[in-house]
Design brief:
heterodimer; A: eight-stranded antiparallel beta sheet; 2 helices; B: alpha+beta; four-stranded antiparallel beta sheet; globular
Amino acid sequence: MTRIEILAPLSGRVVPMEQVPDPVFAELMLGDGLAIEPSDGLAVAPLDGALVVFHSAGHAFAIDGPESVAVLVHVGLETVALKGAGFERLAEVGDRVTAGQPIVRMDLAAVAAAGLPTVSPVLLPQLDESWVLTKTRAASVQAGRDVLLTIERRP
Amino acid sequence: MKTVEMVIVNPSGLHARPAGLFVRRAIGFKCTVTIQNLDTGQPPVNAKSLIAVLSGGLSKGSKVRITTEGEDEAAAIADLESALTSGLGESVG
């Protein structure tokens, strides 16, 4: 059975997606997953793959992994408005990345000072029904080390 | 086949939220829907895939071409053009 583990891209407290204070994420309109309230601003690749999306503002990236499974990490909420301020890019679109590799560093204090939430959704856009998604039950996770989400192909 | 060319009006481009809403509308139609960033020369991408649309790097002012092909292509192109023109819920003042 095909099984893919998606590591936590950030260290911090695990937050159910339904509790993210933005209905687009809370209502799973972009996809299911979990959010992380980060204790540290370094975001890493949650799985091996190609960095296919990395917004110019540095606040959102997606990795196309094995079996065409893509993972989207949205670093903070409404952070697109900062136009890259407070985000240090550590990779570029098109890069092959490995799980745990640094992608972007968010300045937590700067984002908070701008009045924006730092909670960061990690989701699987349009995961098709051939996969079963399991979410960690851990209260907190460490970036690049702990498994956040697991998907398994239905037998 | 129907096509329309237009300009992205969202202040921060088609970032995750408006792109997600756009993709959901596209998925509601049976026809194939593609969106092409005419500024970059990239080929058209599947408008029903969030990752594909986000990878288009559509920013404010980007010129795009939407193409629909299939039984409800006329309804789809009208709906998607209207959605993009309105900014998909974002203020475009």
